[in-house]
Amino acid sequence: MIKRILDILYPRRCILCLSSAASLSQNDIDLCPDCRNELQLVEHSCYQCGIPLQNTLAGQLCGQCLQKSPAFDQVISVYHYRQPLVWLISQMKFNKKLLIARLLSQLMTQHLLTIKKNGQLSLPDAIIPVPLHHKRQYQRQFNQSEELAKTLSDALGIPIDIQYLQRHINSAQQSGLDAKQRKKNVKDIFKVNNKKQRHYRHVVIVDDVMSTGSTVNEIARILKRSGIKQVDVWVLARAGRP
Questions:
Q1: By CB count within 10 A, which of 142, 201, 202, 217 is most buried?
Q2: 3 state DSSP class of 84
Q3: Which residues pair with 128 in a beta bridge?
Q4: How do residues 170-198 score in pLDDT, each as one tens digit?
Q5: CA-to-CA distance for 132 and 116, rounded, in angstroms?
Q6: Do residues 204 and 124 touch, judged by C-beta distance below 8 A?
Q7: Which range marks the domain in which residue 30 is found?
Q8: Each residue of 108-152: pLDDT tens digit?
């Protein structure tokens, strides 16, 4: 009854084209089918770093991962980092659009549930969202990686741990930096919270966008140094290499 009243007072619309509720996708997703089809799923990718590829066999690695393996073990990326997803992520991250955060969390979760149903998802002991420095968290009042992780945690029944890992250095933002600068920018900015350390064997890092992979690689390095054996990465969007 309450939901019906809210639908009358605040009718649902597609977040992108603003079409009415009658045209929205199923599963309570605030996107119409046409706009949802504009989001491009990553169909083929490197097993380890998740970089989109033209065509791959199961478990195939890209040339870069064959030459030098990253610290993480596997990346699952849902969408290509292209418009209109770029705009949606920007609105979620920098304008605190909680409705968009809910939408993107649902889309990511639905995709991972499909992979799980097909028996292709290795479930971890815990989900660790990429942390913000406490100053940036205070400024934004919002951590997009946490928002994505919360929905995944609820749907998959996996605990989320926001205390295990800390960003103890308030580094510059990665946007605008090249690959070499990004790697240097995140060096040693994370640390394990020894007071909250758990005995995990397998964890998943959750983030909104992966480009060069410098941030998640540094996190995986720190986590493995703490004794964790397997570190995977789940990201909403994956950019191609520049």
A1: 217
A2: coil
A3: 205
A4: 886 777 777 888 888 889 899 999 877 78
A5: 29
A6: yes
A7: 1-38
A8: 999 999 999 999 899 999 999 999 998 888 887 889 999 999 999
DSSP-derived pairing of the beta strands 190-192 and 165-167: antiparallel
Instruction: Tell me the three-class secondary structure of 122-171, residue by residue.
Output: CCCCEEEECCCCHHHHHHHCCCHHHHHHHHHHHHHCCCECCCCEEECCCC
Residue whose token pair is 């149903």? 117
Q: In this structure, are 18 and 61 located in the same domain?
A: no
- Tokens standing for 175? 């946007």
Domains contained in the chain, number:
2
CB 84 within 8 A of CB 93: no
Residues 108, 27, single domain; the answer is: no
In Å, what is the CA distance from 90 to each residue of 80, 83, 84, 165?
Answer: 15, 11, 10, 24
CA 97 to chain centre: 16
Give the separation between CA 96 and CA 146, rounded to whole angstroms: 13
How far is C-alpha 235 from the geometric centre of its chain's CA atoms? 3
Beta strands across the sheet bearing 74-80: 74-80, 230-238, 202-210, 126-129
